[in-house]
Design brief:
Length: about 625
């Protein structure tokens, strides 16, 4: 007879357990290399169609009734019995809270009694869930030791959630770590999640733990995880929890794992504050220099500048707080005037000071410092600025060092991401080409250039030219399948597309047509009516320039032929194709990368290998 489940009482839950109304379902855990099912996670359900059918409702009711530990043990027993009866192969993963595991192992022989001879303990992986925190991690080690002594493996579940921390991983040294689904869902489009999982991967390799990615729900996320080298996965895309679990991977998931294209890893395209060696840029610029108190006189300033001839300025402080800055050159020029030393020497130094100096906290990021370069107050270029540590005087900096630091960091950042379009720069581009070549994946490398862009830029100015470049970037991004195609910004009006989409040609043609039509809106009405602009060519002669248009030179690398190429050779071939494309009415030329042995030296020298290029 079924138990009424509306009453939240210990007797009701205990009766539910006693009458064995708990049902076990199993979700496959899959090897992401070959698609083999390595095991199953055992999950519990309440009576079908009842309010307690879901595990969340079931355990919430047990918690209110004070029967959580009993329910955990009963759920494990139900899963073990059903797993053995089904004759499933591989490992069985069972969930336990920290309290339940303590209760299980503190009774000595009860640890082995859990398996009751029904299932070999060596086939069981015990997962420590996030339901409650491990208050004393060091004291919990004997629990893990007892599980391993019984033959079971130990896993840390939902890593990255509140209770599954690095501290627990380091001290308990799990055999398996299951990455929380938060980090897995949409990892194909989230650079921060990607980097977080990559960090977990590095630590797993160091600690010897096997990673399981939980929550895989689509093909894009699966292929990213596969190409990252994550060994094992679990999620609805690979298989849902079922009472009769699959013995082989579903066809759609198997096809995804066998896909020939490689994943396009999400790129963190905005870099701020990085200085290359871990220190803050402002701190690197700091000049250690003495400061003067506000009661100091102009004679004190003169004595300091005379004693320290390389000091470009001196800060005036009240206590430890900077309140003014005196520029050396401006001060000495005043003192060179007749009678100034006699008139002002004994007066307060604030008389000739900048009472509103630029203050830069030594932890300030490059982007924050860069705002100074665009501000209306440019006195820092001559006066320099004061560097502070939590508001206290720490030293000085020069305007020249500020400009140099911002420039250097932005040049470095541009290698990773173009500062105008935020598209990946040269380093990520080369890295993705190398991945394509190392996997022998077939692809089309398309070098994109804008015809007549320089005359447009000269006529309309850099601001309007930047708008055209951003428009081109958007058109090219729209032409890509973000899970298969990689778009990078080489610099200026040069872009690189690495297509794995089979419909690459249609995508490129559509991009060319869309850009060529849309670019005309950046011209003045009179120039649109005239069909272009009048200007001067590179020799200074008067010339007429048609509208800005897009040219795409493409190199085809067939599957299995990647090993004979390098990223530099690919880029060179694509650049050659681009130069040909600029002369074609269609704006698209394709070169077969298989002919590179003869094509590169010939075209690099003479650009005459017409037979090897196909206008499209």
């Amino acid at each position: 007879m079924a138990i009424p489940l509306s009453a939240a009482s210990p007797a009701g839950i205990e009766a539910l357990i006693a009458q064995r109304q708990l049902r076990a379902v199993f979700q496959p855990i899959v090897d992401l290399d070959d698609g083999a099912i390595l095991g199953y996670e055992g999950l519990v359900r309440g009576p079908a169609g009842s309010p307690l059918e879901s595990p969340a409702a079931l355990f919430a009711e047990a918690n209110r009734a004070g029967c959580t530990l009993a329910l955990e043990r009963a759920a494990a027993a139900a899963c073990i019995a059903a797993f053995a009866q089904l004759g499933c192969h591989g490992k069985l993963f069972l969930n336990f809270s920290a309290d339940a595991l303590r209760d299980l192992t503190d009774h000595g022989g009860d640890t082995l009694a859990l398996f009751d001879g029904t299932l070999d303990a060596h086939r069981v992986v015990i997962e420590l869930t996030e339901q409650c925190a491990v208050e004393d991690v060091r004291g919990f080690k004997h629990v893990v030791a007892a599980l391993r002594a019984a033959g079971a493996q130990f896993a840390l579940d939902d890593y990255g959630s509140a209770n599954a921390s690095m501290n627990v991983w380091v001290q308990l040294q799990p055999d398996v770590v299951k990455i929380d689904r938060f980090f897995i869902q949409d990892i194909a489009n989230d650079a921060l999640k990607f980097e977080a999982v990559r960090a977990m991967q590095h630590f797993a390799q160091a600690s010897g733990a096997r990673l399981v990615a939980e929550g895989i729900e689509n093909e894009a996320d699966l292929i990213v995880l596969r190409d990252m080298g994550i060994a094992t996965g679990q999620g609805f895309f690979l298989g849902r929890p079922e009472a009769q679990p699959p013995r082989a991977l579903a066809e759609r998931a198997r096809d995804a794992l066998r896909a020939q294209h490689i994943a396009v890893f999400p790129e963190a395209t905005r870099h701020t504050g990085a200085s290359g060696n871990g220190s803050a840029p402002a701190e690197k610029m700091r000049v250690h220099a003495p400061a003067l108190p506000r009661k100091a006189t102009n004679n004190d300033v003169l004595e300091l500048f005379t004693r320290l001839p390389d000091l470009h300025a001196v800060a005036v402080v009240e206590g430890e707080t900077p309140i003014a800055l005196i520029n050396r050159r401006a001060f000495m020029d005043r003192y060179a005037l007749p009678y100034h030393r006699e008139l002002f020497g004994k007066k307060a130094c604030l008389q000739f000071a900048n009472a509103s100096p630029v203050l830069i906290e030594q932890t300030m990021s490059v982007e924050q410092m860069a705002t100074l370069l665009a501000s209306d107050d440019q006195r820092y270029l001559a006066d320099g600025f004061v560097i502070t540590d939590s508001g206290r005087y720490a030293g000085l900096g020069t305007g020249e060092s500020l400009v140099r630091a911002v420039t250097e960091v932005r040049i470095q950042a541009a290698r990773y991401a173009n500062p105008l379009t935020f598209l990946p720069g040269n380093i990520p581009i080369s890295s993705h080409i190398d991945r394509l070549l190392s996997h022998d994946a077939g692809f089309h490398a398309c070098y994109v250039d804008l015809n007549q862009f320089k005359p447009f830029n000269d006529q309309y100015g850099y601001w309007q030219g930047d708008e055209v470049l951003k428009f081109a970037a958007q058109v090219l991004a729209d032409a890509c399948d973000p899970t298969r195609d990689f778009l990078g910004h080489v610099g200026g009006d040069d872009f690189l597309l690495l297509f794995q989409s089979e419909t690459w040609r249609e995508r490129v043609r559509h991009a060319i047509e869309t850009f060529n039509a849309g670019a005309q809106r950046f011209y003045a009405p009179a120039d649109r009516l005239a069909g272009g602009i009048h200007g001067e060519d590179r020799q200074g002669h008067p010339a007429f320039f048609a509208f800005v248009t897009m040219a795409v030179g493409c190199v085809h690398i067939a599957p299995g032929h990647g090993a004979q190429h390098g990223s530099d050779a690919i880029a060179s071939l694509a650049a050659i194709a681009k130069r040909r494309a600029k002369q074609e009415a269609s704006g698209l030329v394709v070169i077969d990368g298989g002919e590179s042995a003869t094509l590169l030296p010939t075209l690099a020298a003479t650009a005459s290998a017409h037979a090897n290029a196909t206008p499209a």
